[in-house]
Write a structure and sequence with these properties.
Length: 601
């Protein structure tokens, strides 16, 4: 147990505000005895939901203790709850999963049968999520003093939403928050440079333009720069690259571009953007017209102390680009959360990216940990799940949660490794999401998705007698936006092994995109956060060389399997040096949020 943790010693500082001290004391309280808090949380969840159709099935007979719960209620995945979720989405208001009414669904970026998962949520959940969020800045303030003297430039956006056939909203957690009265009545504009109207504008170009302009106008006040996903920060930079002339023009004339026509944004901007600033316009032209954009963030926002963005898990691929544009600013990965529940925060936010660990807050949900067996056959031993307080340092587990809104022993799919303890609360490194191969932003493409997409696309080659004999993939994040690259080795008809035309290959790219899940297609079409899919055809024999390379590095020839996703530089170099042609998707795939019934079908 940490006797005098950095948090505790820093908390004693006379400069720590009363509000922060309260939040820090809460963290101390939550981490001192997580086991008893977990017991209480499970008791509450089970007693208030004892009358639900779901729990009644397992004959708990009013029991609210962990032992009975674990012996009677099965560990489940989304697929096991689809019927219940479908009924709720269609308007059945009886207590199916939860005794409190489900007031909306949060749409997860995880998919089931290619469509977004719908996570039930109840009205009070927003307070739980807000509570966890409110712990982040008090911790940050301990490590970076003076943040209250300026503002945060955060690029925040609402995403598409829909209603289920039963009339419940279905949208991502952050969109739900921005559209709530909590956000609308908050004092966010004392803290952030972006006006609420800009964040709430559903046209992402107008939203970005207004947020960027406000960030430029207040450039000396900006002390931190944040986004949810790193790809969004790179898009903001790319947006600046494409729009700095127009932004400088606005600033030098004091007249807002006609690109902003949303009435609410226009009206709000007319109050913020009241006069020309020639000096700022000239500065912007001077900086942005330079060829080299290395360190552009600190040039434009010189007082920025850190970037606030998640760079753990799949997002680690963006670290070099973030370092390049920020001139090596520290990157803080502050929170670990999902649509199912918010989980925990990073108590040492200025640590190196490789050292980030999250401390799960035991009041958020009831947590169990399924030991992760690398070599296992995947069979689930339900008796092997471990309590939050009993996990062991160095071991890997899959997170399983029971929530107030009606998920019971639900496998989140995240693999976490215990790195240590804060007080008595374990801290976890995010290792990976189970079975996710490719991810640019919120999209998660697994091996089955990729396999299906390759199969569908390769049918287009069959007419010409060409076959895909091997494939692998790579998430290319150096382009803005990032895109999927699929390497194909082809076998043509006859001796000549002639390759299909560019037109056919481009169709294959599009067919792959059409076959990928709805989160991918939404990112392509609506959010525009993923660029056109690329197929790189490699020379015959390339995949044999890949195997030779793996074997030379110690893989067993008998057990060698073609990796369906690659990221190691020498392997990418090998593949790229064998490319004979590259082809891009010529069009956008189909996507519409449609009816939520489509989402869960
Ligand atoms: P969603 O439900 O779409 O919000 O996605 C939640 C998932 O995103 C989690 O289950 C994780 O797989 C991933 N995620 C969330 N926060 C983090 C984080 N701090 N580091 C790595 N992955 C994260």
């Amino acid at each position: 147990m940490a006797i005098d943790s950095p948090l505790q010693s820093r908390m004693a500082s006379p400069t720590t505000s009363e509000k922060d001290v309260k939040a820090l004391k809460f963290i101390e309280e939550m981490t001192r005895n997580p086991d008893s808090i977990q017991e209480k949380v499970l008791g509450e969840i089970l007693s208030r939901n004892s009358n639900t159709e779901y729990l009644k099935r397992f004959d708990l007979n009013g029991a609210v203790d962990r032992k009975t719960f674990k012996s009677k209620v099965p560990v489940v995945m989304y697929e096991n709850l689809k019927k219940e979720i479908q009924r709720i989405s269609e308007g059945d208001r009886s207590p199916i999963l939860c005794s409190h009414p489900i007031n909306e669904f949060l749409t997860s970026s995880g998919t089931s049968s290619g469509e977004r998962k719908l996570m039930p949520t109840i009205e009070e959940d927003i307070h739980r999520r807000q509570l966890l969020g409110s712990l982040v800045m008090p911790v940050m303030n301990l490590y970076v003093p003076g943040l209250d003297k300026g503002k945060g430039l955060y690029f925040l956006f609402v995403k598409s939403e829909s209603k289920t056939s039963g009339g419940l909203p279905a949208r991502p957690a952050l969109t739900s928050y921005y559209k709530s009265d909590h956000f609308k009545t908050s004092d966010s504009e004392n803290v952030y440079t972006s006006p609420k109207e800009a964040i709430l504008c559903s046209d992402s170009s107008q939203s970005m333009y207004a947020q960027m302009l406000c960030g430029l106008l207040l450039r000396h006040e900006v002390l931190r720069l944040g986004v949810v996903f790193p790809s969004c920060l790179l898009r903001a930079i790319s947006f600046l690259q494409n729009n700095w002339k127009e932004l400088a023009q606005d600033i030098s004339t004091g007249i807002l571009s006609s690109k902003i026509f949303d009435p609410a944004v226009k009206n709000r901007m007319s109050k913020i953007f009241t006069k020309p600033d020639q000096e700022l316009a000239e500065f912007l032209i001077g900086v942005c017209s330079q060829e080299n954009w290395e360190g552009i963030i600190t040039k434009i926002w010189p007082n920025t102390k850190y970037l606030d963005v998640i760079i753990t898990g799949a997002m680690a691929q963006y670290i070099p680009m973030l370092e390049y544009y920020s001139g090596g600013l520290p990157i803080a990965s502050t929170i670990y959360a999902s649509s199912e529940s918010y989980f925990g925060i990073n108590l040492n936010p200025m640590c190196k990216p490789s050292e980030v660990s999250y401390t799960i807050m035991p009041n958020m949900a009831y947590f169990e940990f399924l030991p992760h067996n690398h070599d296992g056959d995947g069979a689930l031993d339900e008796t092997s799940l471990v309590e939050l307080a009993d996990v062991e340092v160095g071991k890997e587990y899959e997170l399983v949660i029971t929530t107030y809104a009606g998920l019971y022993r639900y496998r989140v799919g995240d693999i976490l490794c215990v790195t240590g303890f804060y007080n008595s609360a374990p801290q976890f490194k995010f290792i990976r999401r189970e079975n996710v191969l490719l991810s640019i932003e919120s999209d998660k493409t697994d091996e089955a998705d990729l396999q299906k997409a390759v199969e569908n696309a390769s049918r287009l080659l069959a007419e010409q007698g060409t076959r895909v004999i091997e494939y692998t993939s790579y998430a290319e994040t150096k382009t803005i936006p990032g895109h999927y690259v699929i390497y194909w080795e082809l076998l043509g008809r006859g001796q000549s092994n002639a390759l299909p035309s560019d037109e056919v290959m481009a169709k294959c790219c599009l067919e792959m995109e059409e076959s990928l899940n709805s989160v991918y297609r939404q990112s392509r079409v609506s959010d525009k956060s993923i660029g056109p899919l690329e197929i790189r055809v490699v020379k015959n024999g390339t995949f044999d060389e890949l195997m030779d390379y793996a074997i030379s590095r110690g893989s067993s020839i008998n057990q060698y399997k073609v990796p369906r996703c690659v990221s190691l530089t020498p392997i990418l170099e090998l593949l790229d040096s064998r490319v004979v042609s590259a082809h891009f998707s010529p069009l956008l795939p189909h996507w519409s949020f449609g009816h939520q019934n489509d989402v869960i079908r």
